[in-house]
Specification:
This protein is an alpha/beta fold and about 270 residues long. The chain has two domains: about 5-80, Rossmann fold (3-Layer(aba) Sandwich), CATH 3.40.50; about 90-230, UDP-N-acetylmuramoyl-L-alanine:D-glutamate ligase (3-Layer(aba) Sandwich). The chain has eleven helices and 13 strands. The N and C termini lie far apart (about 45 Å).
Length: about 270
């Protein structure tokens, strides 16, 4: 049965009353779902701050905002009842599969530089005449972008380690990991867990674009069996993207062993509002 059809009159719990949580509430409600919004804080009058058997006894789907720990006591209460749990990314993917099956997804993550890179991708979409949008941690939420009347051909998703940790179903044409450095260790518990959450994105991707100058990224991505394209600020080797002076050089996609200049740095700088 269609996933969207199953939402009608379905009791759904949304965890997290922030921007993403409210976007999921709006979408689910528009599909006829009966939605309860949960958060630790009473940020809105309708927000539920306790998870009890009586409140969730009819719930058959939980949609979780990024940032919530996977072992949070709210989540554990839902798990005890074997209720299906989806991230916003996986919810959006299921919806996309029905309403925009030909839409392509690009994933971008990394400790630093995600937003700048996503802005560059959005600029590339515009320059190439591609009906694409940047979303996720920048721009619209993913569920809003998928459900947009713009009917985007491509979405470029800026993804945090939290979003990747929660997601399992989404699939990406290509994913880029910019770098891996100490961050969010309090949430993940260790640098190893944090790094593995970033690398998890590769397992959901057909192709990986990776920073050849980051030793931690090289180490953690070694087990990825898909196609890898490396980039650096140095002269590229065969199969890589790199720089020679101010020229961006392609030795990965041009179909020959010779280097090909594909642009100057100033040509791909993100547009400044």
């Amino acid at each position: 049965m269609s996933f969207l059809k199953t939402l009608r009159n379905r009791n759904v719990a949304v965890v997290g009353a922030g921007v993403t949580g409210n976007a999921m509430v709006d979408f689910l409600t528009s599909q006829g779902a009966i939605v309860q919004l949960f958060d630790e804080r009473k940020v809105f009058p309708d927000v539920i701050t306790e998870v009890t058997g009586e409140l969730i006894s009819k719930t058959s789907l939980v949609c979780v905002s990024p940032g919530w720990r996977t072992d949070h006591f709210f989540i554990e209460e839902f798990r005890k009842l074997n209720i299906e749990i989806l991230s916003e990314i996986d919810l959006a993917w299921r919806v996309k599969q029905e309403i925009a099956p030909n839409q392509k997804w690009i994933g971008v993550t990394g400790t630093n530089g995600k937003t700048t890179t996503i802005q560059m991708v959005a600029s590339i979409f515009k320059a190439a005449g591609i009906n694409g949008s940047a979303c996720g941690n920048v721009g619209d939420t993913v569920i809003a972008a998928v459900n947009s009347t713009e009917k985007f051909e491509v979405l470029a998703l800026e993804l945090s380690s939290f979003q990747i940790e929660w997601s399992n179903e989404a699939r990406f044409e290509i994913s880029c990991i910019l770098n891996i450095a100490d961050d969010h260790i309090d949430w993940h518990g260790s640098f190893d867990n944090y790094a593995k959450s970033k690398i998890k994105l590769l397992g959901m991707s057909k192709m990986a674009l990776l920073n050849n100058s980051d030793p931690e990224l090289i180490k953690y991505s070694a087990s990825y069996s898909g196609k890898k394209i490396f980039f650096s600020l140095e002269t590229p080797r065969l199969g890589e993207l790199g720089l020679v002076e101010n020229l961006l050089i392609d030795r990965a996609f041009n179909g020959s062993e010779s280097a090909e200049a594909i642009g100057e740095l100033k040509d791909i700088a993100p547009a400044v509002p």
